[in-house]
Amino acid sequence: MIQMPKKKQKPKAKDISAPGRKKRPAGKAKSVSSSGPGRSEQYTEALKKAEDFLDRGKHEEAVIAAGRLLTPRIREKDPTLFLSAARISAFANVNLRNYIQAAETALQALKIDNDLLDFHYILTVSYYGMEEYGLVEVNARRFLELASDQPQDRNWPVMFSEAGSRSDLIYNFLGTALREQDRYEEACQAYEKSYAVNPEYVTAYINHAQLLHGIGDDAGACMVLDRASGRGLKSEEVKMLRKAYMSAPVTHFSPGQTEYNRGDLQKALNKLQAEVRKHPDNWTAHYFIGKIYVQMEDDSAAEEAFLEACNLCQNDVNPLYSLARLYFDSGRQDESLKYLEKIQAADKDFVQAHRLTGDINFQSGKYREACDAYVNFVMRMPDDPEVWINLGDSHFKLEEFEQAKQCYEKVIEIDSACSLAYRNLAVCETRLNNFENAYRVLTDYLELAGEDYNLIVMAAEIAANLQKFDEAIKYGERALEINPHSPQLLTLLGDCYYSGGFLVSAKMSFEQALKIDPNFDPARQRILQINEIQDARKR
Fold first, then answer.
1. Structure confidence by residue, pLDDT tens digits, 218-239
2. pTM of the full predicted structure?
3. Which CATH number is 266-478 given?
């Protein structure tokens, strides 16, 4: 949020984009000249009120209060008052993201004097918010030019030049504006100047590194991030990006990619299509066009774009993988496997190819081949719980229950809240005739996780199998609170009551099951059995 500078005696805003407020020198004129018209008491009070609103973050009130002073009469009679109110209004509108209004106010102020630093600052920020990068560049350069000049003998209060301390932010905006105009070398220079002015400005390092990565200079990107780390900046994003860029495939930056990252698919598509018309050999543009069409669910257009990217670039496996994924999702498994084989021949460490190969083989019933593929994945990325689940399921299908059990135990080690892993582990224990172990697995999880209906029912079933009928009833009743309309659950609970000797409760459960489903024969058969027992007791 862009904040107006506050008075020195007040706490300074921590926002990186807010220029600091300097103390006004004693005796400095508040109007155009010492002989000019004085500010009336009413106007003075109105200005203080507007400034107070802004200082307290009440931006809408600040705009309204300052707006009362933005009149042609005040502009003519007391330009300093007009400029002070314009400054408050413009900063407040920027904070409200009313960039058009902020820019219009700043332009009105610059008609009085085009060399007022703060209003070029406001214009730069506003045009940046509107993504008018050409105008960002114009006003950023004018701001930097004025900020570098020696102070001139002016009658304006110094408050109209307080944003001069934020050259770091303006250089960063300028870098982004130049980047969006494909002027990458100049953009890099702007980012460098940004963190040269303020060595602690993490955003400038990150933007510079991301640009270098985008144009294929990952070594340069790592150097920038090393520079940030060397200055003691302990940003997790810096560490994360450096790790990614150390092994990143080369990609080439384009404005369309920026729009894609922002989530504006249609705007990104338009820019990328313009890019390929201009540079038909830009494989990354074709690649991102394909990704956009996937999200738009236009598989044929996505396939065409990915194929073109593959033809243009033989050294990057990402287009190959995207094509393999597209074929997999559309049920063309054999074609998907063909491209996955190409990926593994080119880069055995591209882990997603191993995972997708495993998924295809699992769906095709080739569980041994699925195991091999998933093992190749977990050898390289051992902390992915989903793939350990898939590997366990593959062993389970092969009736290799001990190996499946080890996989599910690994999942729980990674993610102790994964209910599917507890369920599958319990099933493995039952297949190995380890019913006590299965029951312990479920009860341990339910103590932590609470209301997982499927696992509560499973605990009730295993407890009944172990003849722990009191515990089985406890879990059955607990499950019934979650789902009171299951004839199967009511029949299970009735069986537990029956085995525990509670015939009346058992009969009530079976009757309730039949009310829900009159054709549910297991409940009907059990009622007949109970009736026979009760009749025999009467005789």
1. 677 878 888 877 766 655 665 6
2. 0.51
3. 1.25.40.10
